[in-house]
Amino acid sequence: MAVNKTRKHFSIRKINRFFLSLTGLLCLGISISLILLQRGFQKYVYAGEEYIKISKAAMELQDGSDYLTEQVRLFVLFQNFTYMDNYFTEVQKTRRREHAVDKISHSSADAKVINLLSKALAHSIQLEQLEYYAMRLTVQAMNLDKQTLESLPEEVTDIQLSDEDLNSDSKTLFARAWMLLFSQEYFSKKIEILNLKNRAVNSILNQTQDMYDSSFYDLKDNFIMTLIAIIGIFIMNLSLFGFIIKFIIHPLYRFIKNIKAQDRLEDTRIKELAILGTTYNDMFDLNKSNEELLKHKAEHDELTDLINRTAFNNIKESLRNSKKPLAIIIIDIDFFKIINDTYGHLTGDRVLKRVANALSANFRTSDYVARVGGDEFAVIITGCYKEQEKTVALISKKMEAIKSILSDNIGDTPGVTLSCGVATGSEGYDDTLYEQADMALYQVKRAGRNDFKFYENSAEFEK
After folding, report:
1. What is the C-alpha separation between 170 and 145, in angstroms, rounded?
2. 3-state DSSP call for residue 423?
3. 451 SS3 class
4. How many angstroms separate the Cα of 463 from the Cα of each of 214, 232, 421?
5. CA-based R_g, the chain, Å
6. Residue of 373, 411, 89, 30 whose CA lies nearest to 225
7. pLDDT, tens digit, for every residue of 182-233?
8. Nearest-angstrom CA–CA distance, 443 and 258
9. Of 50, 190, 255, 463, whose CA is between 20 and 30 Å from 263?
10. What is the dihedral of CA 173, 176, 182, 188, to 10 degrees?
11. Strand pairing of 368-371 and 376-381?
């Protein structure tokens, strides 16, 4: 066949060079995409580490403030100067609050988080004046000799008492000091510190989530770039058509399906895709682990691993529209403060865990066992019998079993008794049910504790 001289022809060598160059560029694009994926994974890890670091610092600020409150109250209550020494060691040497804010100031936290925690620190420092005054009142009431008084910290001795306090007797001064530490002003400051800390942690969480979202979209773009590069190589290498279909295209389709279904990516024999899948899976696992950790920490008490007050309140709200009978139990550990003061807080913590384990072991997984306060627990029993007598018998049996478990000492952990108030309802939860259980608990305490009582519609429970 004659060659048409007027038609333009392409050199195979040039075409080959063109496609080789294009293939090289596509391979380079894949390499860059993998590097970006690796960086995206590192960004995920960094975001999680920063969240943990900043959240821990925020908790240290809260712990420092709570520790000061605890020590000043113990000093006023027991007039033991060890608590005063502990207080000023924290203020002047340990300085957890100040160190926490300093850590956050040198982290990746935004200005809003730093400002919130700085305000929380300022509120905590403002509380010191009330605490100094309470300690001064206590010292005044103790009628110390001059030498002992001069050995006290200047922050306390320099406090000028009012004329009224100077002329008051010891009993009045002790009461005044105690009331200062439980005043509305004091509680308002403490609540504000807690709110500021919680707002800061939530802001950190939102910031971390934004970083996660940003990284995810970057990874998605890099993934698409990798897909385009592979498809380009597929088109330019028809001889490898079958290989690409089996080992590249099909895995990529599975990847897309898994990503849409929010599942982990399956393994593949192609090295580049294996790196892609491993990187994505690492990020997926880390993200899921962080989400589960954050959710668990937000809904559970750190010491006992029971659901906390917030989660318990949410459960109560969800049961308002239920048509099934249920029961609510409010539980207090008898004389828990004495246990703490006698054996120490570590033993107190072991007692709390022991009570939590006993409650969890004796109630069903469908029931809700919560720690709603320092030594206060609560249980919502769902799916109760319609006949109240059966429900009363069931709960009585469980409470007797729990009472038996907790009565004996275990090692250096003392046995304890519980005071419990129980109320039953025929249809779902309402606030009256909780109040009735609380009234029943009050009757148990008034009768000497170490018992459980069901609410009854009688004059005794209205007192």
Report:
1. 15
2. strand
3. strand
4. 60, 83, 15
5. 33
6. 30
7. 888 888 888 888 888 888 778 777 777 766 666 667 667 777 777 777 787 7
8. 58
9. 50
10. -130
11. antiparallel
